[in-house]
Write a structure and sequence with these properties.
It contains 10 helices and 13 strands. The strands form 3 sheets. Strands 1, 2, 3, 4, 5 and 6 form a 6-stranded mixed sheet that branches. The radius of gyration is 32 Å and the shape is elongated.
């Protein structure tokens, strides 16, 4: 980052110097031309020297500009010619250096546009040659297209996240990245996850998509409930609501258990929790009923629970509890909408001794 800043400063300084040279050159040319016709400079060489010096000062920036213009045009023509021979985005990555943001935008667009068009060949080329050579690759692509919801390329990406890794070793470079987001298509929620390598100087066969997964709400709920891990590199999993009951809570999908109509509002629950600090309290159980979602947190004794509350302005609301044991002491509780956990709306505040 510091190196890039230094380069930028250096370029700015060069532009300033060239601009000064050009302006000084113009001034010298004009002064030399005007002095040439004055009687006091008759027979003197100074006007001619001023004009020659001015001409040199003016020509330096102009020559540099022409050279840059020729280089830019040549480079652009070369890039257009080379890219006309590329069959997919990873082909570009194997021959050109691209930014992480450009790589991310290009690859997700290439995958979804080709999938929307039903172009299996164009879609498949985006995966690494290493994966394409696997025995079950063609069958995996066929299964993907059988379930794929056409139109995802036109959906807005929401809650976009990801993370890249890179290794640099004396000219040997490997760059990997990922993209995770959800989108809404025709009222249905979908989660999209992508992993890819956009630079590998030693092993170009590992450049390309290494994993692509699309799941609807119900499939995501089951997948997360089972641990959120898979060995498959290509998945389009669409489950129906008749197979799985699921809800979107705080931007994540959960397998849902219906326990009756919600009984209280968020404000009523918050007022009750000023006097209650355990989830197994009979009074709280009477107010909330059974949890709609219950999760044992890995690696600790903590539990997470979700309860449906009465909706607000027609939108569902949920209470999100964290306890120190199964239905034990409440550690914290917050209000949730389908798309976020509202950390500004505390339902429970731990009691402190004054």
């Amino acid at each position: 980052m510091a190196f890039a800043s230094m380069v930028f400063v250096f370029i700015i300084l060069e532009v300033i110097v060239l601009a000064i040279l050009f302006i000084v050159g113009i001034i010298l040319l004009v002064r030399g031309f005007m002095n040439k016709h004055l009687a006091e400079y008759a027979g003197k060489k100074s006007p001619k020297i001023m004009m020659i010096t001015g001409g040199v000062f003016v020509s330096l920036p102009l020559v540099l500009f022409v050279c840059l213009a020729v280089w830019s045009i040549t480079s652009s023509v070369s890039t257009i010619f080379n890219r006309s021979r590329y069959e997919c985005i990873p082909d570009i990555w194997r021959h050109e250096s691209v930014s992480d943001s450009q790589a991310k935008s290009d690859i997700i667009n290439a995958l979804l546009v080709s999938a929307d068009k039903g172009n299996r060949e164009a879609f498949a080329r985006n995966f690494t040659p290493e994966i394409q050579r696997k025995s079950g690759f063609d069958a995996a692509v066929d299964r993907f297209f059988e379930s794929y919801p056409v139109g995802l390329s036109k959906c807005d990406k929401k809650d976009e996240s990801g993370g890249g890794t890179g290794s640099y070793d004396y000219g040997h470079k490997v760059l990997n990245d990922s993209l995770n987001y959800y989108c809404i298509l025709d009222g249905d929620w979908y989660c999209v996850n992508l992993e890819y390598c956009y630079c590998n100087t030693d092993e170009p066969d590992k450049v390309g998509v290494t994993g692509f997964w699309i799941r609807n709400l119900e499939a995501s709920a089951v997948f997360e409930g089972e641990g959120g891990k898979t060995d498959e590199y290509l998945v389009c999993d669409i489950k129906s609501s008749s197979e799985v009951q699921a809800r979107l809570i705080g931007g994540r999908a959960y397998v849902w258990r219906t326990t009756g109509e919600p009984r209280v509002t968020a404000e009523q629950l918050r007022a009750a929790l000023t006097k209650i600090d355990r989830l197994d309290s009979p009074a709280l159980n009477l107010m909330l009923g059974e949890p709609n979602v219950g999760i044992k947190n890995d690696g600790s004794s903590d539990y997470a629970y979700f309860y449906e509350l009465k909706p607000e302005n027609g939108e569902p609301r949920y209470a999100y509890f964290q306890t120190d044991s199964e239905f034990g002491r409440i550690l914290w509780a917050f209000l949730c909408t389908p798309y976020e956990v509202d950390y500004d709306f505390e339902l429970f505040k731990e009691k402190t001794d004054d």
